[in-house]
């Protein structure tokens, strides 16, 4: 068995167990038989695209992540700030992950930011300052040391109030695309 095959098998089993899925659960999600999945994980069946694609989808990952080289040379992320329209952003995760984290420093805005809607879930923690969170018609004040979590199908936006504010944000890749483009 090649090293990449063993890595893929280990990742498949690791993702399945991390999500607390039994072989039967993953079989139902992927439309493969439990015995096929077991044979793949144990190396008794060859890995082919016809099984790898449904397994990747069922485990909420992509084939690229399953096949990626296992290089742990540098696990430290060195965020570089990007500045745009009263906002400084530091990406805290690698671009290849299924979730994204970023640190954002906001300057107070003179106008209410435009609300957005997108699939997913957002979470942020206020490191410093105060954030005014707009959720549809509601306005919620989030203070230093507090966090907010909400479904992103609700129209939403946020702004610093009374001075600069810093937050840590975590969201899925769909949310990352939307917030990166804000």
Summarize the topology.
Layout: H1 3-18, H2 23-30, H3 34-42, H4 49-58, H5 63-67, E1 82-84, E2 87-91, E3 99-106, E4 121-128, E5 131-135, E6 138-142, E7 147-151, E8 156-160, E9 165-172, H6 173-181
Antiparallel strand pairs: 1-2, 2-3, 3-9, 4-7, 4-9, 5-6, 5-8
What does this structure look like?
Helices cover 31% and strands 29% of the residues. A 6-stranded antiparallel beta sheet has the order 1-2-3-9-4-7. The model has no long low-confidence stretch (mean pLDDT 88). β1 (82-84) and β2 form a beta hairpin. The protein has helices at 3-18, 23-30, 34-42, 49-58, 63-67, 173-181; strands spanning 82-84, 87-91, 99-106, 121-128, 131-135, 138-142, 147-151, 156-160, 165-172. α2 (23-30) packs across α3. With 182 residues, it is an alpha+beta fold. It is elongated, with a radius of gyration of 21 Å.
């Amino acid at each position: 068995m090649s090293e990449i095959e063993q890595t893929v098998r280990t990742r498949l089993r690791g993702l399945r167990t991390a999500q607390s899925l039994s072989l039967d659960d993953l079989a139902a999600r992927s439309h493969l038989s439990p015995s096929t999945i077991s044979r793949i994980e144990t190396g008794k069946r060859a890995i082919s695209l016809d099984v790898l694609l449904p397994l990747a989808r069922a485990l909420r990952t992509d084939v690229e992540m399953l096949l990626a080289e296992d290089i742990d040379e540098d696990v430290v992320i060195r965020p570089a700030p990007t500045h745009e329209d009263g906002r400084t952003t530091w990406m805290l995760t690698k671009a290849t992950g299924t979730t994204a984290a970023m640190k954002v420093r906001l300057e107070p805005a003179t106008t209410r930011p435009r609300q957005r809607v997108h699939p997913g879930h957002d979470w942020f923690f206020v490191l410093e300052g105060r954030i005014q969170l707009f959720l549809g018609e509601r306005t919620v004040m989030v203070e230093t040391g507090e966090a907010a979590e909400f479904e992103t199908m609700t129209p939403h936006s946020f702004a610093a109030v009374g001075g600069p504010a810093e937050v840590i944000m975590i969201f899925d890749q769909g949310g990352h695309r939307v917030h990166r483009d804000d």
